[in-house]
Amino acid sequence: MKLTSKQVSHLKSQAHHLQPIFQIGKKGLSTEQINQINDALEKRELIKISLLQSNLESPKETAEIIADQSGANIIQVIGKVIVLFKKSSKEENREISLTLPKA
């Protein structure tokens, strides 16, 4: 899903108060973590992920890997925090995507 700058701005404001629900440590990303992130995106649509200080990968590269494998949009990467959005395929989970400004 291609997002407009207005939609990205809206999602940034929605994500501001969220706490990271995943932490990626020195071992980097595992297939299991990507599956869990995918499940969380399906249920919540908008999530934050934090990279621990021990993680050696760059946050931007990590965000791109997750986005490629999950089909999510990278909303922003600030320091070691990644914000991702993916519209849920289930209508009952589409709370945030319904509030997006029209393209």
Set down the secondary structure blueprint:
Layout (H helix, E strand, L loop, with lengths): L4 H11 L6 E3 L6 H14 L1 E6 L7 H12 L2 E6 L2 E5 L18
Parallel strand pairs: 1-2
Antiparallel strand pairs: 2-4, 3-4
Q: H/E element string?
A: HEHEHEE
> CATH homologous superfamily?
YhbY-like
- Order of neighbouring strands in the sheet with most strands: 1-2-4-3
First-residue to last-residue Cα separation: 11 Å
Q: How large a portion of the residues is in β-strands, by DSSP E?
A: 15-25%
Cα radius of gyration in angstroms: 13 Å
Description of the structure:
A hairpin with a 2-residue loop joins strand 3 and strand 4 (81-85). This protein has helices spanning 5-15, 31-44, 59-70; strands spanning 22-24, 46-51, 73-78, 81-85. The longest helix has 14 residues, at 31-44. Helices cover 36% and strands 19% of the residues. By secondary structure, the protein is of the alpha+beta class. Strands 1-2-4-3 form a four-stranded mixed beta sheet, sandwiched between helices. It has three helices and four strands. It has a single domain (5-88), classed as YhbY-like (Translation Initiation Factor IF3), CATH 3.30.110.60.
Offer a quick outline of the entry.
The chain has 103 residues and is of the alpha+beta class. Helices cover 36% and strands 19% of the residues. Strands 1-2-4-3 form a 4-stranded mixed β-sheet, with helices on both faces.
Features:
3 helices; 103 residues; 4-stranded mixed beta sheet; single chain; globular; alpha+beta; Translation Initiation Factor IF3
